[in-house]
Amino acid sequence: MNEDEMIEEILSRKRRNGGSKPTINVEVDSAHDTSTEEPKKPNGNGTDPGPNLGPEPPPAEPPPRDPIDALVARFNQKYFVVNDNGRPCIYAPQHDPVLNRRVYHRMSPAGLRLLYENELVQVGTIQKGENKGKPKYATAANIWLGHKNRKQFINGVIFDPANRNPDPQTFNFWTGFAVEPKQGSWDNLQDHLRTNVCQGNEAHYKYLLDWMADAVQHPAKQGEVAIVMRGIEGCGKGTLARAMLRVFGQHGFAVSNTAHLTGRFNAHLRDCVILFADEAFAGDKQDVGVLKSIVTEATLTIEPKFGAVEQTANYLHIILASNEGWVIPASLHSRRWFVLDVSDARAGDRAYWKALYHELEHGGGAAAMLHDLLRRDLKDVDLRAVPVTDALKEQRKRSADAATAWWVECLGRGWVFDSELGLEGHWQRWHDFVPTEVLFASYKQYCHEHHERRPLSRELFGGWMREIGANPGRMRTQPVGEHLTDETVPAPSGSYTRRVARLIMHDHPHGYTVGTLDDARDAFEKWSHLDVEWDGGATP
User: Fold this and answer.
1) Share of the chain above pLDDT 90, in %
2) Are 276 and 319 in contact (CB under 8 A)?
3) Reported pTM
4) CATH 3.40.50.300: does it fit domain 187-396?
5) Cα-flanking dihedrals φ and ψ of residue 47, to 5°?
């Protein structure tokens, strides 16, 4: 059925039902100029509200009198056609009152036509044939889709907070900050950041402010370092994120579900600068790789539901908060995490938090914070020089791989191999030289007890031992294990055989010199950059 037949069917149905759709009687002039005001493009510092986003401002001029002009203007307020990653579609921007942010629903031309199939517009009269002189109709959706002044961005969509290549035919998701910078007071928040979040450490406080200033001064740059805060409920570990989300508005997003942080469908990250993960990641090894990539990689893989996968620039500045012991996968030499243990001194102090949030939300605190951060001098600041906090060291310990955790356990107890046959007298001592057979058997035992799914091979294990400073070599006859053996015991009435535990001795076995217990501990701390409180250990 073609469009004319479809329209006639709709009209017939309406006549049979006793109703009629109001129509607009107007001749459509293909050269008719219905151009609307040129939309503004956001500027580089993000203070302009930008095109097509947020609540639309009232029209500067009276609405067009021409019915077709009015129809096109009405549709332009609600929809626009875009080239979305090579796929033409229609965006229907709407304000989500729950999330308090603008969302973009994707729609096909067929879907738009279905929505407006029953809105018919008389566009003139039929000029030829037996129906000459009768009204000619078109659906509202088809009029808008075929009109030269429909709103469209045929060169594509981008998210560029710096607006480096302004193009009226490219849609930029960036809308600017949600508040206007204005001089004022945000003293309460500063006190919280200095006193509670950084616990009075001025170097940590300075780094935190530098990180915040870099986010607002360079939103079109990857955050590079994630802020991580641990603390009990009510200590204010999410207050910093709340302030930054207030400033970034549309371009801030809070998640509390791991799937929203590391899951497959992540279109919400497409126009995000500040990402706050509140209890969304608590050391789940399954998601370690994804979390590391969104912190360190220069690009993001965005996959909307029912949409094409695409690569975009990664502008995320990530803040994580948790009350769990293990929060992040921090390797021994990681420099991507600024980890802070938040003081609980103000937990439950309702007056303190009431004053702080009133200043932030109603007293101009967010605008004052943005004002000061935009003017903060970052000329000599290197955010990659992350302070190694005690909290970061704790995360490194908790994130240690199986080999590192095994060696820490050996150094802590003061011996390498746990005897299963009662030969503790030999094994529960520290030996300067340990055969490879003994080391690898102890490591495998640890992996088995801790359900390690990917233990090192013997070859890789040897490389790891050399990495931590152990020297390979060979030594005179050494025990390389233990076993049960039959032993003949003389007796008055003859002799008998019994099973006894004995050391397995090898001549000049391969192994590693690890030094005294104190030397081995010092070498490990130097290699790992961890400060470990060791117990006394076994007798050397």
Assistant:
1) 58
2) yes
3) 0.77
4) yes
5) -85, -15
